[in-house]
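Reviewers asked in the last cycle whether our approach scales beyond single polypeptides. To address this, we selected a multi-component target totalling 274 residues and predicted its structure end to end. The input consisted of the following lines:
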Amino acid sequence: MPELPEVETVKKGLIKNVIGKTLQDIEINTEKLRYPLDKASFESLKNKTIRDIHRRGKHLIIFLEDNLQLIVHLGMSGVVKINPTDSYQKIKHDHIVITLNDNLSIIYNDPRKFGYWLINTNSKPLEHKVLITHGVEPLTDDFNAEYLLIKLSKTTRKIKQTIMDNSIVVGAGNIYASEALFDSKILPTRPSNTITKKEASKLVVSIKEILIKAIAEGGTTLKDYKNTEGKPGYFTQQLNVYGRAKQNCYTCNTEIESLVIAQRNTFFCRKCQK
DNA sequence: CTATCCACCTGGCGGC
DNA sequence: TGCCGCCAGGTGGATA
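The resulting structure, written as structure tokens, was:
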């Protein structure tokens, strides 16, 4: 499900509703997400207050008092909901239910269980093993043509795979990688080290613009992604190539093709992209 | 370093 | 209606 815009949307929902609230009860309903959930450790979070919520790549960092953080990844199918506690009714795959004061609950639902919630206690969450390997944030000035070009020059991997490599730039997943390459008029199969400076500049702009537009639309819902209010993302309506194999390109009417790159289905227009 | 395959897990969809 | 294979917004590990 969730690439950067979806995680950012969840972050906004949480910030709006749960900052300053206190964790009164934590219910763990599954033994294992991607990493095991240690019930005893979660007990230690009781009565802690939520201070802030950050996003790093596709991770949420929930800052609690006393240098505690929850580092959260939504995997492929994770959904975070905020519900009034008194009207909450548990549904299948509600793995974590955090009851806050003020009649609010945070519910983590994840059918495929590829997500994870990790407790970090060292006050430096960015040094945690799941975050330390992250490359630059795409929506900062650290992600620019010079930076990208240097990274691209060092590898022959297909460009799509490189822009999805979180150690280079975080946040672009399978949807937005295809969309950004279409916007940049670059074929996803191009060896990274053949991308020109001009193309790299365009690609940087395209990635930023597409992520920003997607955030503005609340993300992309293909199947089960929902924001904290249970609403879908509307960027789905603006997808130019993703999921459109054998349909006509909106720009040139050529049939959109699909191809598996690094085990991920990839969509492109052979005429618009070179 | 690269490409490739597999695993984790569940559910939805199309085909028969 | 039912079963079966295939596919899915992510990531990491094994292998050649």
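The mean pLDDT of chain A is 96. We regard this as preliminary and will revisit it once experimental data from Aim 1 are available.
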